[in-house]
Amino acid sequence: MRVLYLDAGAGLNLEMLCGALADLENSEPLDIGFPGAALQMETKRCADVAGRCVQALYAPGPEGTQTWDLGTVKRQLDICKITQEARRLALDILERLAQVRARLEGIEEKEIKVASPKQAYLLAVCAQQICRLRQSGVERILLSPLPLGTGVYSDEGCTLPVPRPLTLALLKGIPVCAGAMNGEGVTPLAAALATQACDDYGPMPEMKMEAVGYGLYPEEKGGALRVLRAVLGEAQSGEGLDRICLLECNLDDMTGEAMGYVMEQLLQAGALDVYYTPIYMKKSRPATMLSVICKAARAKALSALMLRETTTLGVRRQDLERQILNRRMIKAQTSFGPIGVKVAGEGQAVKFKPEFEDCAQAARQNGVPLQAVILQASLEARAALERGE
Questions:
Q1: pLDDT per residue over 84-102, tens digit each?
Q2: Whether the predicted model's global pTM rises above the 0.90 cut
Q3: What spatial distance separates the first Cα and last Cα of the chain, rounded to whole Å?
């Protein structure tokens, strides 16, 4: 299983994350078409480390330079050249920030200002980087315990310890520590991103490293550079635990066509799996149970979709752990062309699953049976694995 580990011992903000992921992929600044915004990126050295230092630039447009509400940010993201998955991730992060801040301040979510133009732009870039890594085969993103920082700050006549209450509230349930830096170690937007984009938290797992990237951020008033390290690698154990949510509801008055539509919408909205089970309800009424497996970050949005698109009056939720085989994608070179094959497990427990769309396309183009393509792809994948490729 390919994993990305974010070592945030020196803190976490969007600039550090953007720089670390760009350095990891050795990529140039992404042009996402955010109106009036650009990314300034340069390579800097810190001790024995060379990494990317990122700064967002913004030329005021019709929306102005003031902090934007969620609706304004959404309009800007709709214009951007980012994937639907990246757009959804960015909005999930901002919605969580708005929900938590509204609870803390006792006001309506629609009144919350969620991000400045520069922050909204950086968030969109980070979301695109994360989703691109997911598409390249990264199955889990892990984060080290976050250092909150030390010291105090003043706000409205009060002197408070860092971090800010919003940051603490956003990090509920995530491992944290004091850290060694003076000042705030984690920004609120980075805290919201940590809860929505990462799959697990804790120490670095045993892995075979493939690449390392560094994101650098200068402390205020000429202080030392803070460094975020991103490590990409292949997890060494054959199995792992994965945290998921199970959402369920019972349906006794929906047509098959409508349930098919709901399944399609749920999968497009980020569900990991969707399935229906025949059941009997009170008074022996035949019915159907809808089950949705998803990550915790998508549970609220998918529950809302189930309530909106089905006839149910409520959705049950369970937080579960599942044991999974580590998985990775390889390209099997067949006589019908390259075929993507998912390889799961290691040793005697290894399993192969050729990508259906690749096989179907090769079968149509070569005029051969689909099963012939699937069989050859599986055999070639096993042979490649035995050769150590």
A1: 999 999 999 999 999 999 9
A2: no
A3: 15
